[in-house]
């Protein structure tokens, strides 16, 4: 084994010492060889359950993570299975520096903050932007890769804090069938199936399916009824030309959770299970993702790839959110205007309808040529690419105007959708006001076309030294329209050149140290929606500096550490009513460290920590954000998960998630406290089946899982103590 550097040795101590004893996962007989410098994986009874990630799945990146001058965190299938993970949101709780947002405004589905910046449009599926507004499941995923830091050179617009790439399961040449079933103490029942069949020596097909029904958490009004089917067909495996066809079809019938309103600077102090929606609330979603790709090896060191992906998401939502807290009298509802000393029993919550029918779609085509070449003693790993894409968005809003205590909550001509009022304590969860007439609101539309070319070169100057350089030119043309809201229409054309440079020093195969610089940009019409006064602004520009290291130690244990700075230098800032200028500056100084893999043959761990010192250091002052911390950005986050084989066939494990305090609104007037949540697992493992018990939130900690900055800042409580029993059978 290579001698550890002082930094690597310190990281082993940091992550190994506090983690409790937990269990090992197994490795298949046909697992791929370890990366250069890594020790061979352990093989136990033919089952793969290593947390350690393999080669990167993104074609835009080198397969070896040591050659990527950015931090990458991978959550793979083995780790997700050991934790009982079923959704993208649950999987991303393993990535420090990520926080979750709830549904708000015109947005539904997974809303994520990464390193202090919104990443709602920075979610990818197999390297393609997956911008549809829906709740993503993991039944058809092999792993999730999170690339930290601005990455517009690789991915185009957005990616200020980084990108999240979902890696789909693909057909392979090994026949296998896997069926699982689980049930929780909440009453959620779930089953999945995964069938892979070899059709010939060079072709295979694979089908995955999922169905679930019941309460998703201990909170009231969280019932889900979802199902999905995914599949892939691969022809030409192991030949010079490989063709891949894949599809995902998913249907969600869920109850939305808009959380708790704020009172006196904190989430209102009620029982965690309290919800303020109506029993008739629901979010129905239909998702279709289709992909076709061809990979052709022109020569041993030259490969041409072309892939087209089409995504379509339709959402029909009837939702009621807690808008504000106030009092009720003979004249109706009166909202509080400041702090209140009144008892909670005398306060009410005004509900607001958030009804809409949304259609999101996109079609993108990427052509990439990768080649290895040499100019004298310098070796080159080249990537040339062309991307063409079209996005579309259609959102028909509806509103339900109601009354409180017999008094209308708004004028008859208003479109605010204030619907009803319910007690802060024991709201009753009735369908009261559910029959209120629905009226047509704003109809928003948008579309965008993207044309981009990019080139990247990883140059090996010597065995130990590499330089990375890349450029991407984007032409982004977008337009939006509104029937009631303003602006009535807007359009913009953005031309932007993104840059990526880095230097890598690899003194041995098990060590890699790097410096990197990258940029990204955010057009004002990036999400195909617009705020009046912002539509004609130039794009926000972001830049990042990062220094870090990656080490392979012990029996396949991978360590990493990095320090970084991300700056949004010309953020949109309000200077007067309806007028914005690029006067803002948001800066995040941070550090992260992680450990993934086996400490011993029986003990493996996945842990990472992120420190974020984020602040708005430039703003007009009018919006009250100058000097404030960005929404939903904790200073400290730590995630740990570990497993240990205590006896033949028996495994125990667990870990903690820690998050320091954060703010639910941009002016930092609503503070949400920090928390530590503990989870655990016990499993009985056989060659053909596993029986696993997962225990979530062991101490029944009251904490807030997702924050929503609208309506003054709302907070969604996390689930209480829950147990899940699952059986996984392999044929």
TrEMBL record:
<feature type="domain" description="TonB-dependent receptor-like beta-barrel">
    <location>
        <begin position="254"/>
        <end position="698"/>
    </location>
</feature>
<feature type="signal peptide">
    <location>
        <begin position="1"/>
        <end position="23"/>
    </location>
</feature>
<dbReference type="InterPro" id="IPR012910">
    <property type="entry name" value="Plug_dom"/>
</dbReference>
<keyword id="KW-0998">Cell outer membrane</keyword>
<protein>
    <submittedName>
        <fullName>TonB-dependent receptor</fullName>
    </submittedName>
</protein>
<keyword id="KW-0812">Transmembrane</keyword>
<keyword id="KW-1134">Transmembrane beta strand</keyword>
<feature type="region of interest" description="Disordered">
    <location>
        <begin position="45"/>
        <end position="65"/>
    </location>
</feature>
<keyword id="KW-0472">Membrane</keyword>
<keyword id="KW-0813">Transport</keyword>
<dbReference type="InterPro" id="IPR039426">
    <property type="entry name" value="TonB-dep_rcpt-like"/>
</dbReference>
<keyword id="KW-0798">TonB box</keyword>
<keyword id="KW-0675">Receptor</keyword>
<dbReference type="InterPro" id="IPR037066">
    <property type="entry name" value="Plug_dom_sf"/>
</dbReference>
<comment type="similarity">
    <text>Belongs to the TonB-dependent receptor family.</text>
</comment>
<dbReference type="InterPro" id="IPR010105">
    <property type="entry name" value="TonB_sidphr_rcpt"/>
</dbReference>
<dbReference type="Pfam" id="PF07715">
    <property type="entry name" value="Plug"/>
</dbReference>
<feature type="domain" description="TonB-dependent receptor plug">
    <location>
        <begin position="66"/>
        <end position="163"/>
    </location>
</feature>
<dbReference type="InterPro" id="IPR036942">
    <property type="entry name" value="Beta-barrel_TonB_sf"/>
</dbReference>
<dbReference type="Pfam" id="PF00593">
    <property type="entry name" value="TonB_dep_Rec_b-barrel"/>
</dbReference>
<keyword id="KW-0732">Signal</keyword>
<dbReference type="InterPro" id="IPR000531">
    <property type="entry name" value="Beta-barrel_TonB"/>
</dbReference>
